[in-house]
Amino acid sequence: MNELLYVYAVTRPFEVGVPAAATGVGGRPARPVEHNGLVAVVSDVRAEDFEEAPLRERLEDLEWLAATARAHESVVRAVSAVTGVVPLRLATVCRGESGVRRLLDEGHRRFTTNLDRLEGRVEWGVKLYAEPDPEPDRAPATAPAPAPGQQTQGGEEAASPGRDYLRRRLRSRQSREKSWAHADALARRLHTELSRCADGQRLHRPQSGQLARASGVNVLNAAFLVRREESDAFVGQVERLTPRDAGVRVELTGPWAPYSFADLSDQPDAPPPGRRDEQEAHEGRAGV
Q: Region Disordered: start and end of each range (predicted)?
């Protein structure tokens, strides 16, 4: 049986070779497989992890998945520092170098089109989180009701703990609604203004649950395709658009290889692009 090769990205031939720092899945070094004017960056992987049946089980193991995603991103990042790349989805596996060459043949037109379009460009991620005030503590235990006409020392009618709690809830709800409206308006402004500074943009589904490791509620989850030499200007624009007030938080990540902008969707036999986020589980395929 042929060896299994994990494929990280596709590039054009480059002279400097795969960087020594490009350590792949399982600590195996990445290497190039060149064919028909393209290069696949690959490393050997164990069949007991990446054959179809065990891979399905592995993809349910979040710890293994995170480690695999980190290795995948490490190789793509190292290679993208020296040449343009089309990053492939997480856990793309071929059977031997013959399978890799077939992958390059089947996807040749799409790979070259993407390499032309993405050359010299990187991806920046921008997320906006709303951080509204927390709900007030639950209502206190009921206190004895004051007698009719009973007054406090100041001459006012005694306050009810339940009434105070309802007032706090009302103020909190009004504050939260204001915070949500502010976050929504800022998200729209960020997306509109940053799109003008980029060659492309993608809106991803806001993250929630286990995917949202940061505090707050993810309102905007966007990616922007930016020319590498214009990255400093893009970062500066994000900083200028980021408010200093409480209630919202902007998170900028990158530069990444252009995961969100590699478009292989119309090619059934080539693996579609994957996101860098190690939290997102993708199905791999073996036996190519």
A: 130-164, 258-288
